[in-house]
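Usage

Read records sequentially. Each one opens with the input sequence:
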Amino acid sequence: MKFRTAAVTAALAFTSMVFAHPAQADGWRSLTVTTARADNPLKGFVPFSPAEDRSQAFPHTMEWVMLPLKAVVKGERTYDWSAFETELEAAKSRGHQVALRFYLDNPGKPTGVPDYLLGDGGIDQSRRYSFYDNNGISFSPDYNDPRVQSLITDFTAAFGAKYDGDPRIGYITTGLVGFWGEQHTYPMSGDVNGDNPDGTNWMPSREVELGFYQAWDQAFSTTKLLNRNPREGLENTAVGFHDDSFAYSTLQTADWHFLSRMHASQLTDRWQTEAVGGELYPSLQSCLFEDPLACQDSAENFNEAVLGSHASWLINEEAFTGSYGDRERSAALSGAASLGYDLAITKAKTETRGTETAVSIRITNRGVAPFYYDWPVEFTYLDANGNPVEPVAVDANLPALLPGQTTEVTADVRTVNDTLAVRIPNPMAGGAPLKFSNAEQDADFPGYLTLG
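and closes with the structure output:
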């Protein structure tokens, strides 16, 4: 997969059959913009995959799914995707897409290593540990073992061949290496400490580790990938990053913090083409939106962390437990809405010339990140019941629309006296449409912004 440089297309032209509406004296008509939305797809706060619909608890369009690799890998290059399909279909039934991770070692849970590598002649299982409340339950595989390397790269290739571009999947965190699949083995990371008096390192060599990420890049050309650690060697690998200690160790106040490592590895502009996500640090979730100053001495400013990281989504399980009071919930809604993109149509124009009408809209991204998928803009007739008739999809190159930039979409259309509307439909059936931050959005029909 080629690493793309962000560029904005200034104007996008198309010819189609849509309806005319009256023009203002100067041609352009201003639309009413609103605050950012908290119910847009592929952004905002994310709960763990629920057993039931939690849509009323807090607005969301994604769910977090985490599975042991053995749930899918049943033998060498032998796969059963049914358990994964169950998770995808359950989320889809609620109108949600997923962010996900597969793991081999999740502290406190049985190993995720497939059974075929655990029997006689299998891989070393001696790296058991007691920290993170594991008590010897799971073990850290030897990632330098060629059998483990083949397991990871073979699975990655098969996964990409089957699921790259699947609209049910929003983001994949590459996982598999380290505790929780978070690509670290601290305290067994090469430094002498109380849990590691010999300075043992359980991480793979950097060459082996980079090989894993390059395999992910080769397997996926459409679905967005995220790594845990911004480090050297990823300059030409198309991965974004996830900060799983968000608002705790995000800002550049220590050299080991997320943004400090992004800067040191010269990846600070990666957000322009690859997504940033993560998890609001668990101990902050219950208090950060109520009283940030009393939350923790080390809690960071949430808004500064969002602006600095350009994060699009964050796991925040606490938001979905019903524990937030009114003030806390309101602050959390604003926080969720501040993540990722925020698209508004600032102006629209129609110019009628007999049987033809020129229709134009200007879309501005007011968010902190682009929308990372190339979903088309759809113009359509709407009948009296709000049913779309003759929808026309237009490539608007949304991933290239960076924060603060505006793109103009222009159409030469035949003149018809009826209602014209615009929307950005979700390619997953039943998924949340991408809505504009305008008062005209949903004013007449759900999912559509009426142009006239």
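Summary fields computed downstream for this record:
- Residues 11-35+342-450 form a domain with the Immunoglobulin-like fold (CATH 2.60.40).
- The chain has a mean pLDDT of 90.
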